[in-house]
Amino acid sequence: MQAQRALEAHNKRKHEPFTISQIARMTGVNAKAIRYYESIGLLPCPARFNNQYRRYSISDVNRLILLRRIRCLGVPLMQAKSLLIGASDVRCLDVQQELLKLVETRLIAIDQEIAELHRLRADMESYQRKLVDCHPDESQAFQVCADMSCIAISNENFEGKEELV
Description:
Multidrug-efflux Transporter Regulator, Chain: A, Domain 2
């Protein structure tokens, strides 16, 4: 949708430069974020009008649309930096192929995160069952509790992890 708006705007204005507020509207990326992306090198510093306002091209608009998509996918921005910087000088197909590599890498990372969460969930369920099955002395105050086995259950099932309590 944003790419289409950017293309329509470009077709109307051909080679006219855009202001930061215009590209913010076209791309859905606010002006403050655009300036931030420039400051960290994800976007090149734009040319300036005589009044020192930034002048952006359709290439900058396309780069911002790509950057926004990369952010939505959860790809770390610094991992996409070379793609964003070089996007102006390559074919659309090259950008697509590079983006595909980033997405594949992100999918692998997501699968690893999911596996870690499944392991954590299994550990939590095991700990929960042990807590339910354990019956501490009901009359003893915690501050003088001599038998902590019902609270600080052995972490034999939690190998390589810090104690849960």
